[in-house]
Amino acid sequence: MAKLTPNDFAIFLLAISTILIFARFGAEFGKKIGLPIVTAEIAVGVILGPTLLGNLVPDLYNYLFPFTSNARVSIALDGLFSLAVILLLFVAGLELQLGQVLRQGKIALSTGFGSMVLPFASGFAVSWLAPQWFGIDTSNRFQFSMFLGTAMSISALPVIARILLDLKIFRTKIGMVVIASAILNDLIGWLLFSFILSMSGPGKGLAGIGHTIIYISAFSVFMLVIGRMFLNRILPWVQSNLSWPGGVLSFSLGFCLLCAALTESMHVHAILGAFIAGVAIGDSVHLEEKAREIMHQFVTNFFAPLFFVSIGLKVDFVKNFDLLIVAIVLIVAFFGKVIGAYLGARLGGMKARSALSVGFGLNARGAVEILLGSLAFDAGLITQPIFVALVIMALVTSISSGPLMLYFLRGEEERD
């Protein structure tokens, strides 16, 4: 049985330590010059990856990150990065509170659906009608079009929440509408993306697709109804009778991995199980805020840097930069999300400038878009130039979201 040799294990540990140390210093430097932590971590990956280190000192790059030269270390690193993705989706699920969507009523539903339908239709249409612009094989056109539509329609709840807090409008009417709509975007978007990934798995004919839809629907409904009832009963006992904070941390993460294993065994990507587990636990009234924060800190300070730095470790961002693809992705992203959210907010009764502000608020894609693109790239659904375009789009929309929201809010704030 193949296993890591002492030298392999030393390289594995050296790679992890290099990522974590450089990511921490990169994040601290990024904060000083106003860069989001995610942006700084991706930049560290670009520096350590084939874009810079791989071109300047290829021997050092291949020694530290032997993705092509050492299969054992490569598998170990990929396994750790996959675990990081699962836990990131779990934390993203913890951020969702379904009650907020219901409390905002008609305006949240109209804005949420508007900010998904038009972006999805725009992304699907441009990739379906002009696959040659993306260099996509026409035999894979439907699945890629479904993916691009989903990528255009999803938002980044953690980034949006941070922007609203920075602008001091989190608890205003506009802030609550944006948050509720982003929750709806994320929930539907990740369910749809799980389905798209499963289309490339075993049994991808019509019968297989039908089974996948049934599995995803049944699992999601079961977890968000029966699972939530179970968690509401057991979480108080866990927090009262097991060691704090280890008890709730072990139970929550164990539950996350159990759900991830269950969906993976159904040939639906493990991210769905992790995400729905996070939603079910995070939506429980019995989960203490301190416990939520501990899980958030644990994942975002260890696993998140590993994942976001790894984005730059395998892709040459200069070699795979395609101006046409980047331009198309940016135009479709801004047009679909901003106009779709604007129309939805207007339909819900919001004034024009406030509706535009909501649209630009929901346009922030951040880490969620990068995560989605990375999963699609690993699954062979998209090429490196498309992945690079999605990363650039995620960064541009996140950086521009706050200033554009503030511009349209001036003189027309709608506060509770």
Q: How many structural domains does the protein architecture include?
A: 2
Percent in strands: under 5%
Average pLDDT, rounded to a whole number, is 84
What's the total count of β strands? 0
Largest sheet: none
Q: Can you give the helix content as a percent range?
A: over 70%
Label the CATH architecture of the largest domain: Up-down Bundle
Low-confidence stretches: none
- What is the element string, with H for helices and E for strands? HHHHHHHHHHHHHHHHH
Total number of helices: 17
Q: What is the CATH class of the largest domain?
A: Mainly Alpha
Radius of gyration: 21 Å
CATH fold field value of the largest domain: Na+/H+ antiporter like fold
Shape estimate: globular
Q: How widely separated are the two ends? A: 64 Å
Structural class: mainly alpha
Set down the secondary structure blueprint.
Layout: H1 6-32, H2 37-48, H3 53-56, H4 58-64, H5 71-95, H6 98-129, H7 141-153, H8 157-166, H9 173-198, H10 206-241, H11 246-265, H12 270-282, H13 289-313, H14 323-347, H15 352-362, H16 366-378, H17 384-409
Helix pairs in contact: 1-2, 1-5, 1-13, 2-13, 5-12, 5-13, 6-7, 6-9, 6-14, 7-9, 8-9, 9-10, 9-15, 10-11, 10-12, 11-12, 14-15, 14-17, 15-17, 16-17
